[in-house]
Fold this sequence. Notes:
Chain A is an alpha/beta fold. Helix content of chain A is 32%, strand content 17%. Chains A and B meet through strand 5 and helix 13 of A and helix 1, strand 7, helix 8 and helix 9 of B.
Amino acid sequence: MAKKTIRNIPQERTAMPVQEPKARVRNFSEVALGYSLAEALNEAERCIMCPQEPCVKGCPVEIDIPGFIQKICDQNFRGAYDVITDTNLLPAICGRVCPQESQCEQVCIVGDHLEPVAVGRLERFVGDMAVAEGWSNEPDIEPNGRRVAIVGAGPAGIACAADMAKAGCEVVIYEALHRPGGVLSYGIPEFRLPNEIVDDEFGKVIELGVKVECNTLVGRLFTIEQLREKMGFDAVFIGTGAGYPTFMGIPGESLNGVLSANEFLTRCNLMQAGEFPYKDTPLHMGRKVAVIGSGNTAMDAMRVSLRLEAEEVHCLYRRSRAESPARAEEVDHAEEEGVIFHWLTAPVEILDDGNNNVRALRCIRMELGEPDDSGRRRPVAIEGSEYEFEADMVIYAIGTNANPIIGQTSNLELNKWGYIEANEQQRTSIAGVFAGGDIVTGAATVILAMGAGRRAARSMKAYLGILDPVEMAVSDPERPRIFGIDARQRNYRRVRVAA
Amino acid sequence: MYEIVAREDFSDSTFLLEVKYPLLAKAARPGQFVIVMSNADGERIPLTIADFSPERGTVTLVIQAVGKTTMEMQRRCIVGSALYAMVGPMGKPSEISKMGKVACVGGGLGVAPVYPQARAFKQNGAYVIGIVGFRSRDLIFWQRKFEDVCDELIICTDDGSAGIKGLVTDGIAMAVDKHPDIDEVIAIGPPVMMKFCAEATRARDIKTTVSLNPIMVDGTGMCGGCRVSVGGEMRFCCVDGPDFDGHQVDFDELMRRLTRFREDERAALERWQRNPGCRLEQEPTASE
Ligand SMILES: Cc1cc2nc3c(=O)[nH]c(=O)nc-3n(C[C@H](O)[C@H](O)[C@H](O)COP(=O)(O)OP(=O)(O)OC[C@H]3O[C@@H](n4cnc5c(N)ncnc54)[C@H](O)[C@@H]3O)c2cc1C
Ligand SMILES: Cc1cc2nc3c(=O)[nH]c(=O)nc-3n(C[C@H](O)[C@H](O)[C@H](O)COP(=O)(O)OP(=O)(O)OC[C@H]3O[C@@H](n4cnc5c(N)ncnc54)[C@H](O)[C@@H]3O)c2cc1C
Ligand code: SF4
Ligand code: FES
């Protein structure tokens, strides 16, 4: 086969088939439908297998991107799945929600001349095929008698749990809510990440023998210290996330109709308030919704509002579109669906209708001044530009802080914002207790949380003095590798088993 | 899990459930609450832990049937059945100061929740004055239990059919007249009752602790639905409370926020009352 070059590959990035905006704002089915086989093969051909592989460095967990794309080209999809799951446990989830445009795809060589290779879409294609075909990579696990507790069933906790289970530990995940998944379950809506996908990819972790105990509020039912000292766990990982919503402190925030995006999304996703009164949790949807903020959370809240038949949905953001922290694709999708963006606009007061409900917002226009510490230009209010803006529901999506309960109930060292202090090995101030994900870094991404969970697993293994099992059985003779085994810890031998 | 091992009906709207959950029974402290889901499609509702017994491995909830969820529970939660979910203990435990003289005030759905505090104060060696309010004589419950842990018990009824005729605030007035040296008042009940209890003690500057009951979802500090104003600052009741300094709480805001879903709640209740038996038949066939 001729060597692929920028010139001879398909020049156009293969478009992602999507539901038409008009149709999709009326349902909760997925917006991006996923590549067909032909589309995936076409896009895979666009990777020139450059030797530098910048994309691998651009990926927080360093997926062997050209490796799995080559397998797609070879039409060895199971092989592609094995390559991805060497490092990433949840490809169908990450393929959907990772900000690829600022990670692997940002640095792709093809992107210097053309649109970069659609790595995320290809990853999702492989992940979806694994879901459909029921593939999973389960090693034969030799128990080593060690017990590990994981606090929080978000991506960080799940990733750590999987690695420790594969190493032979008995793993129990404790989750406060009645459903595992963390933000993937309660936050990110169905049309972006179907619950089915979350259940399926998490199910693979449970198949490793991990026990998930929902409805368990760690810190209050028992403490981190008790897990170590009284309950016989040799090591503990904390991945409790950063969900504590912030408000602005402007007048009118206690009015009925003002809520955090987390409350809004939790009611809709976790509690299915959209099906009220068939399901018991109410939402009291507004007609004219104003969402404050412009991150992923804001986009999700707006797009859910549209699907719950809000007449108008407005986005108020104090900076401009260029500074919007949401994935570019999400902003585009929201706009296509009819969200009205008000860039350079900030609310200063929420006004009531005399009955404790929201009637309007008083807003002020902003302009961009000098860059601040983050390098973004600081928004400055334009004096005298205040105006009233009608709305009956106001949703705050301006950021979150550390979930507070573990901090309140343990002696763990916290930083001044309440996040748990952990070093590069994810070790905390208490021996044998590790932490990672949003509870350490502040709100970040799914893949970074997973990466932290896996790093914690590596240090946990070192701490416990355990090696991965000596023999790992893998079912695919093609590619005798397995997710969760650190290639750098050359302490295991791969054995192939007949299919 | 979460099996109901005993039930008692105090009136046609108030009932007690004793739920088996040994770990929770061991961890619970006075002032904490649980969040309960009675079924998979149900709402998450907070309920105060009215009693807990590490020996029996149970926690006790006393519930007032006021809306769809609590009425459905009243109907369905029979001994031997189980709740779908129960998580806790949530919230910060009450601070039970040592010694001194305290008044534990409970009205309406606050009568049961104030009991564990009264008991804890007693165990700490305090002089405990119990003040509990009911509408009338036949709605009184747990009188013996309170008598066992209180040095004095003042029962208040709206119609005077038992104890003194009047509200718990009248009980407080009586108590503080007799005992000017009361160190602390703990008041639990409907917001309006707590508000007036706090007013009653403000002039004498008696420390007054109230247990707030805003609308909640997760109970872990993740939604902010339970935010309340205390001393002009926003606090999340589920993780910063539920106990707060009654003299600092903005009760009017709390009461306003409790009406957030009033229309929806009424509609859900009416719908359910028309056909309380069948949840399934009414469900849409293709749920998206
Ligand atoms: C609406 C929304 C949209 C997002 N969209 C994207 C996106 O498109 N792409 C992306 O990469 N990232 C996105 N993110 C961010 C991403 O979801 C998070 O960074 C990631 O989920 C963090 O994972 P985590 O495991 O650290 O914590 P979480 O996912 O927050 O999970 C923490 C879990 O711990 C549980 N817990 C908390 N306290 C306790 C306790 N005391 N005891 C037991 N359990 C406890 C919580 O209930 C929760 O289930 C989004 C976030 C939100 C809110
Ligand atoms: C910390 C705390 C402790 C509580 N302890 C008890 C208790 O020991 N016994 C008891 O009977 N009740 C208690 N409550 C109140 C109880 O949670 C509500 O009565 C219950 O949720 C009503 O649900 P419903 O569907 O039956 O009624 P609805 O018709 O839905 O509501 C009736 C009223 O209850 C309040 N309410 C509704 N939903 C919620 C919710 N999710 N969270 C909080 N309040 C809500 C509203 O003010 C509403 O107007 C407590 C509440 C809190 C916050
Ligand atoms: S940078 Fe682009 S072209 Fe190079 S290996 Fe990665 S995906 Fe392929
Ligand atoms: S109930 Fe959600 S933050 Fe308190």
